Amino acid sequence: MKLIGLLFIAGVVGLMGFFALRGECPGGVVVISEDQCAASGSVSRTACRTIFRDADRVTQASGTVFSDLQRCQANHDRCVPSSVTQGFAPVPAGFCVTAIGDAVTRQEPVYRRSNAPQIGGNS
């Protein structure tokens, strides 16, 4: 019985390690601006234009909305009034993106907690 418990714990620890080492954008790149996106070499200039043209729409559709500014700022560095509902939404620090040619296949906001290190572009 102890062996089963130890194997279970080892499995959980291994799984946690796997997800921790994958980073915040597995299979993609975190970008913070159109120029940095294009310079990454992972995404075409056209796809980068699309990503940052659609940034506000993607952010508003996928972010958490806080009832008041203080709650938002307790968790995130920058917050703005939500255009979707009443409240405040965090401003993403960047976007996790993947693209095939000029087609964007994934665009997800990456948020930083107010006490987290800043994105350097090579997450």
Describe the structure.
With 123 residues, the chain is α+β, with helices and mostly antiparallel strands. It has a domain at 32-110. The chain has helices at residues 2-22, 34-39, 45-53, 55-62, 69-75; strands spanning 29-31, 79-81, 88-90, 94-100, 103-110. The longest helix has 21 residues, at 2-22. The protein is flat. The N and C termini lie far apart (41 Å).
Which word captures the global form? flat
Mean pLDDT: 78
Report on the biggest sheet.
3 strands, antiparallel
Strand order of the largest sheet: 1-4-5
Indicate the radius of gyration in whole angstroms: 18 Å
In short:
The protein has 123 residues and is an alpha+beta fold. 41% of the residues lie in helices and 20% in strands.
Quick tags:
two-stranded antiparallel sheet, 5 helices, 123 residues, 5 strands, alpha+beta
